[in-house]
Amino acid sequence: MVDFSEKDRFFMTEAISLARSALDEGEFPVGCVLVAGDRIVGKGARLSSVGPHPNELDHAEILAIREWASQRGEDAKYPVTTAYITLEPCLMCLGALIINGVDMVIYALEDVMGGAAGIDFSRPLTRIPPTGKKIPLDGHLYFDWGRKIRGGLMRREALALFQEFYSDPSNVYWKDSPLSRYILSCG
């Protein structure tokens, strides 16, 4: 069992509040808070999961990174140390968090369909090209990341939001997917 601090709970509560706001707008309830030290430097809630122009780009993590990037200017004086997210990040979002220097990712609920937390960071994700040229391992983004990903913080609270979303017949986002079936099957 992973021990989380009161600080972790405080910031996850903020992410859950953002997810609640998204849900109240009819969006998929994902919230993300980026933290540097004891300060929130970026926030995001899922957008465009419903409506006339749904897309898979307006994820909470991407919106939080954009907010943080717009505030930090050219000098990254607020390095993000932790991302708190209500749902395990997908590969796109995890990659964006890594590239932007996040040291730790803490999520509430596992994403059994698209979560990327189980990636093996002990070896490169790329392979040797067919020409036989070797790829140097030093400096490889994934090989050198060496950060932490932890899940399960305030899982029940996040699960309740996702169950509320999928219990509403008007919400068709990933309806009848492995994720929706899993969420609805959790007691």
Task: Give a written overview of the molecule.
The structure is a single chain. By secondary structure, this protein is of the alpha/beta class. It has 6 helices and 5 strands, in the order H-E-E-H-E-H-E-H-E-H-H. It has helices spanning 6-24, 60-72, 91-99, 141-145, 155-167, 178-185; strands at 31-36, 39-45, 82-87, 104-109, 148-151. Strands 2-1-3-4-5 form a 5-stranded mixed beta sheet. Helix 1 runs parallel beside helix 5. The longest helix is centred in the first third of the chain and has 19 residues, at 6-24. The chain is globular, with a radius of gyration of 17 Å. The two termini are 20 Å apart.
Supply the key terms.
alpha/beta, five-stranded mixed sheet
pLDDT < 50 runs, ≥5 residues = 137-143
Q: How many distinct helices?
A: 6
Order of helices and strands, N to C? HEEHEHEHEHH
Shape: globular
> If you average the pLDDT, what whole number results?
86
Rg from alpha-carbon coordinates: 17 Å
Q: What structural category arises from helix and sheet content?
A: alpha/beta
The main sheet comes to: 5 strands, mixed
State the end-to-end CA separation: 20 Å
Q: What is the helix fraction of residues, given as a range?
A: 25-40%
Q: Widest sheet: strand order? A: 2-1-3-4-5
Strand content: 15-25%
Number of strands: 5
Please give the structural blueprint.
Blueprint: H1 6-24, E1 31-36, E2 39-45, H2 60-72, E3 82-87, H3 91-99, E4 104-109, H4 141-145, E5 148-151, H5 155-167, H6 178-185
Parallel strand pairs: 3-4, 4-5
Antiparallel strand pairs: 1-2, 1-3
Helix pairs in contact: 1-5
